[in-house]
From TrEMBL:
One of its GO terms (biological process) is amino acid metabolic process. Gene3D superfamilies: Aspartate Aminotransferase, domain 1, Type I PLP-dependent aspartate aminotransferase-like (Major domain). This is Threonine aldolase. Its cofactor is pyridoxal 5'-phosphate. The keyword Lyase applies. Coiled coil: none annotated. Its EC number is 4.1.2.5. One of its GO terms (molecular function) is threonine aldolase activity. Residues 7-289 form the Aromatic amino acid beta-eliminating lyase/threonine aldolase domain. Keywords: Lyase, Pyridoxal phosphate. It comes from Pseudodesulfovibrio piezophilus (strain DSM 21447 / JCM 15486 / C1TLV30) (Desulfovibrio piezophilus). The keyword Lyase applies.
Length: 346
């Protein structure tokens, strides 16, 4: 099998060897199923060390499942979820929140995928109006789909705004590890300490095989989640193979080591590629995603060897993304080929 040279997504990288080793170690003997095994129960306690003793953790296999089921557990079918127009739940989940959750999404225009109280406020005008869906949740993505970070103060402001209006705050944390690494803070600092209500916790993009979790931090929500998870076919029978990944991911700061590697490689790529005449890095690089403008002819040359996304065909913007598995040699080879491609089309 030919190895894919990818700067398209951290989803393209394999699982970290330590994660694979943990799965193999979990494959011993007979254990109870459906999350009643000792490994899953112990992993719950590990999560509580990171998010607080009140956290309730439920394992699933995909980020879409985490988002949709988490939101479904805290809404009625007459409720709506407010999100940035670029949000993953709005653009990249094939209508799953609507189809499986019965949830109306209300996308809010944003330049960078971030929401603010001022941007959200105009969309609350129909609260109490029987002919309109009733807002219940504000969903934010950290980092956003455009690679931008909320500061802790910005999250705190949104939470305060939401709770003052009897709304919940959901944090889509598929890449939350990268955000915490960039902001030099803990998961607790970013969520529990700020009174975030529920979190979609991601591990797959940062070294896990298929490990995600829905975490309820607000003790008054999500009580029916176990039944929703079963209905949605996400109650894995051999749950130990999911929880074993996440336990190892959290242990010995593997999550942080991996995230720092991904982030630092994105910074390296931005600095080196941005120094090439004809390449423009768009904005600051906050985490492990960067957006660049290069001549379209050069893009075509690069796509013969590398896999990455053309983000905007109109202005020839591409997205490059690094992962825990990206090395300095990979970045330097890519940069060298970018230089050759740009020079070839001058």
């Amino acid at each position: 099998m030919k190895e894919l040279k990818s700067f398209a997504s951290d989803n393209n990288s394999g699982a970290h060897p330590a994660i694979m080793e943990a799965v193999v170690k979990a494959n011993i003997g007979h254990l109870k199923s459906y999350g009643e095994d000792e490994m899953s129960i112990d992993t719950d306690e590990v999560f509580k060390e990171f998010f607080g003793s009140q956290a309730r953790i439920h394992y699933v296999t995909t980020g879409t499942a985490a988002n949709v089921l988490g939101l479904r557990a805290v809404t009625h079918t007459y409720n709506s979820v407010l999100c940035a127009e670029q949000a993953h739940i709005n653009n990249d989940e094939c209508g799953a929140p609507e189809a499986f959750g019965g949830i109306k999404l209300v996308p809010i225009p944003s330049q960078d995928g971030k929401l603010t109280p001022g941007a959200i406020a105009p969309y609350l005008g129909h609260v109490g109006f029987v002919h309109a869906s009733q807002p219940k949740v504000i969903s934010i993505t950290q980092p956003t789909e455009l690679g931008k970070l909320y500061t802790l103060k910005e999250i705190e402001d949104i939470v305060e705004f939401a709770h003052d209006r009897d709304l919940l705050v959901h944090l889509d944390g598929a890449r939350m590890a990268n955000a915490c690494a960039a902001l030099n803070c803990s998961f607790f600092d970013m969520t529990t300490a700020l009174d975030v209500d529920l979190v979609s916790f991601g591990g797959t993009k940062n070294g896990c095989l298929m490990g995600e979790a829905v975490i309820f931090l607000n003790p008054d929500i999500g009580q029916g989640f176990p039944y929703l998870r079963k209905q949605a076919m996400q109650l894995v029978s051999k749950m130990r193979f999911v929880s074993a990944q996440l336990e190892r991911y959290l242990r010995d700061d593997l999550w942080l080591i991996n995230a720092r590697q991904a982030n630092s490689m994105a910074t390296r790529l931005a600095e080196k590629a941005g120094a090439i005449e004809g390449v423009t890095i768009k904005g600051d690089v906050d985490c492990n995603a960067l957006f660049a403008h290069i001549p379209p002819e050069a893009t075509e040359i690069l796509l013969e060897k590398y896999y990455f996304y053309i983000w905007d065909e109109h202005d020839h913007t591409v997205r490059w993304m690094t992962s825990w598995a990206t090395t300095e040699d990979m970045v330097d080879e890519f940069v060298n080929d970018i230089r050759k491609a740009v020079e070839a089309v001058k």
